[in-house]
Design brief:
By secondary structure, the chain is an alpha/beta fold. It is 39% helix and 15% strand. The chain has 29 helices and 20 strands. It has a six-stranded mixed beta sheet with strand order 2-4-3-6-1-5. Strands 12-13-14-11-15 form a five-stranded parallel beta sheet, with helices on both faces. β18, α24 and β19 form a beta-alpha-beta unit. The radius of gyration is 35 Å and the shape is globular.
Length: 753
């Protein structure tokens, strides 16, 4: 919250709206907003003397006003008891506008008129409650004391808001009416004890996309802490004990802190936060502070204690961490002392295995809630939550982004939309039509305030803006892997159509049709082994697979993993798989895998590396949505255990290109170069029998170099002529012998594909 500042209450200079749309907006100068760290649309607190603070919406003043003045509507003055000339303290309020679950109205029609009309009958009350949805939905926000006039059946009656309930307990006095979730009731204001009874502890899911399962589990737990559980829910047996603690865990950026804040605002009498920095200033001091927090929580039931990054307060116990182990013991002691108190401990961590095991027991942090990397459906929910009430991006674009952002967490998606907005702004600003529209709007009405003029040309986000932003915003789990996604397409590779189709099925089926695979009890493939002579497009095929599938891509050279230090190679391999799991769905590509996966022998130094690779692929922890693709020129030296079912079980032979493939390779290369029409591609394809794809590309490049030599001699632009290819065929010799190809084909009889 910002530092409060006193302002003098002044009236609006314009006629107020009849629908109360702007009734709770307070207008301040731009300098005052900057001082209070407020933007137009933020919530702010208004406090007169020692009265309880009231809530309003900060807005930029339309006219020039003094920095000590605040303009308010007459409606706000009447509801909050402000008078013109009062000095009110204004400060920033760190809260969000919540939907009202119940709005209770009491008729306040003039007594003489009410005597003529008569009271609303029980039969007509539902009709009036239904009709009042219209004026309430037109109002921006509502608060206690707000008066509405409504005409139905020729009767014009007045109603005053006497009670507002919200599922999320927040320290605000204004609420938003939602036709989908808000209920209207006509009647007298409820008694105070009934208001307490109606208020239930609950985490409100609005604004938290992709967390429905986690929020449902937490809300099931919060029922134990409601003040009137017995009258609303079935009574529990004598042996039942309320949950004392919840542990929330997940990778960075998935929304753990956001969920903690929402739990903290679920309607507790009081909430407490424990930070590791305050507890580690001294051994005795930290323990005393910890006990004091739990003691205060017991005096303010129902209450909640929030502990973020609990692994720093209660890490796994070691001989060298005496302070941390003492804090962990005190924390366990305090949780045990809660017994049947209505106090809940909620902790969060990125690494649950680094938390003291004594806390992860059924009578302490008994419920563990995982926030994993969201799926495509979860990402769509998160994107819609980030968008809020804005028009852009549209639903179609959100679905497109959700499908393309594999491995992105909530923080990544927020950063992506921020950058996409800036990209769209730059593109539209450079667009001539935007500038023309801007100038036209300025010339049409120079008296409009700046904020309204800017709204005349709305921002439009396109797929191109998002794609450009995705090049700069990478998933959190991939930021330490400085790799560019390969820019190779299937159309850049000649031939091998059967291999392309097979790899597409291996990658796309688990992502697009998981329900079909589950129905037929078919598990997704974990690994693919590409083998064949050098220069036959093995690496190129994998690059195209990563590009076309749009998955996160980790490329590893087999020799790069090996280290002279004991254990370093195994650690590097485990980190690669850990990053791939965090950024799934992803592809790990091991080039030259024979360097780390040769057949085991007593003297082989890479036995531990191979064992680590086998355990990561098919160990205790299941490898889901991570495809391992390996390439080698020496399949005969690989360990047989690597190629059993469940590991690299898709064994694909990538041999020299056939006639059609060679023709396509020549056509792809020549389509990007200045080649004479006299060059016969079919003839070149027929004459390069047994050449690898790399050798065919080398022939084309050599012919191009010959044309460049002629161009330098003559000084005239040259096309690649047939005689240039003749020279290239003489210079580039075939490297693949018939014996070598025969060995590969012989070994291919063991292939599963």
């Amino acid at each position: 919250m910002s530092e409060p500042r006193l302002f003098t209450v002044r009236p609006f200079s314009k006629q107020p709206r009849q629908d109360h749309r702007d009734a709770f907006r307070v207008y301040l100068s731009a300098n005052s907003l900057a001082y209070l760290k407020l933007r137009a649309g933020d919530l702010c607190a208004l406090q007169l003397n020692d009265d309880p603070p009231k809530t309003a919406i900060a807005w930029t003043a339309v006219e020039n006003i003094q920095n000590t003045v605040i303009q308010t509507s007459k409606t706000l003055q009447e509801c909050y008891g402000f008078k013109l000339g009062d000095k009110v303290a204004v400060s920033r309020l760190d809260a969000s506008l919540e939907d009202a679950s119940l709005v209770q109205l009491e008729e306040c029609t003039d007594p003489e008129k009410l005597a003529q009309l008569g009271p609303i009958t029980d039969a007509d009350r539902p009709h009036w409650e239904w009709g009042l949805e219209f004026p309430l939905s037109r109002c921006e926000v509502l608060s206690l004391g707000l008066v509405f006039e409504f005409d139905m059946k020729g009767q014009r009656r007045s109603f005053r808001v006497v009670h507002v309930a919200s599922q999320a307990a927040v320290n605000v006095t204004i609420f938003r009416f939602n036709k989908e979730s808000s209920t209207i009731k006509i009647g007298a204001a409820p008694a105070e004890e009934d208001v307490v009874k109606a208020t239930a502890l609950q985490v409100h899911p609005s604004g938290l996309g992709g967390m429905s399962n986690a929020i449902q589990r937490i809300n099931e737990t919060l029922v134990d802490f409601n003040a009137h559980t017995s009258s609303t829910f079935p009574s529990m047996p004598e042996f039942y004990r309320s949950t004392r603690g919840i542990l929330i865990y997940g990778p960075k950026g998935v929304g753990k802190s956001s969920l903690l804040h929402r739990i903290q605002a679920a309607g507790w009498a009081k909430s407490f936060s424990i930070g590791s920095s305050a507890l580690h200033r001294g051994v005795g001091d930290g323990e005393a502070k910890l006990r004091k927090v739990f003691q205060d929580a017991r005096l303010s039931q129902p209450s909640v204690i929030i502990i973020d990054q609990i692994e720093f307060i209660a890490p796994k116990r070691t001989a060298s961490s005496q302070e941390s182990s003492s804090l962990s013991s005190v924390l366990c002691e305090c949780i045990d002392g809660l017994e049947n108190a209505k106090v809940l401990v909620v902790a969060a961590t990125r690494r649950p295995n680094d938390v003291d095991d004594s806390l992860r027991t059924p009578h302490r942090l008994s419920i563990e809630v995982e926030l994993s990397v969201p799926t495509a459906a979860g990402r769509a929910e998160i994107l819609r939550a980030i968008r809020g009430n804005s028009v852009e991006p549209g639903d179609a674009l959100i679905d497109f982004v959700a499908e393309k952002t594999h491995g992105y967490v909530g923080a990544d998606l927020f950063a992506l939309l921020q950058l996409a907005c800036r990209k769209a702004r730059v593109r539209q600003t450079m667009d001539l039509s935007f500038l023309e529209a801007k100038m036209s709007s300025l010339q049409t009405d120079d008296s409009k305030p700046e904020t309204e003029t800017e709204d005349s040309v709305p921002l439009v986000i396109t797929e191109e803006d998002v794609i450009q932003a995705m090049q700069e915003v990478r998933p959190t789990a991939m930021r330490e892997v400085f790799l560019e996604t390969p820019k190779v397409r299937w159309t850049d590779i000649g031939g091998n159509d059967h291999i392309k189709r097979h790899l597409q099925k291996v990658v796309e089926r688990p992502l697009k049709h998981p329900e079909r695979m589950q129905r037929l009890n078919v598990k997704s493939r974990k690994g693919v082994l590409l083998y064949g002579p050098p220069g036959c497009s093995k690496t190129l095929i994998v690059k195209a697979l990563a590009t076309e599938a749009g998955l996160n891509f980790l490329a590893v050279k087999g020799a790069e993993i090996l280290s002279m230090y004991v254990g370093e190679s195994e650690r590097a391999l485990r980190e690669i798989f850990q990053k791939a799991r965090a950024a799934r769905p992803s592809i790990i590509f091991f080039d030259e895998i024979d360097a780390i996966a040769a057949k085991r022998s007593g003297t082989h130094s890479g036995v531990n590396v191979l064992t680590t690779l086998l355990n990561e692929m098919d160990g205790i922890e299941e490898l889901r949505n991570v495809l391992v693709v390996a390439a080698t020129n020496k399949p005969d030296v690989l360990d047989p255990a690597l190629m059993r079912p469940g590991r690299l079980d898709n064994i694909i032979y990538v041999g020299p290109p056939d006639l059609d493939a060679r023709r396509e390779i020549f056509r792809i290369w020549t389509s990007k170069s200045a080649v004479s029409d006299q060059v016969q591609i079919d003839d070149l394809a027929a004459r390069t029998e047994g050449y690898s794809g790399a050798e065919i590309v080398s022939i084309c490049e050599t012919a191009g170099e010959e044309a460049l030599d002629d161009e330098e001699r003559t000084g005239q632009p040259q096309e690649i002529m047939p005689h240039h290819f003749e020279t290239a065929l003489q210079r580039v010799k075939r490297q693949l012998t018939d014996e070598l190809i025969q060995e590969y084909e012989q070994w291919s009889k063991l292939s599963a594909f």
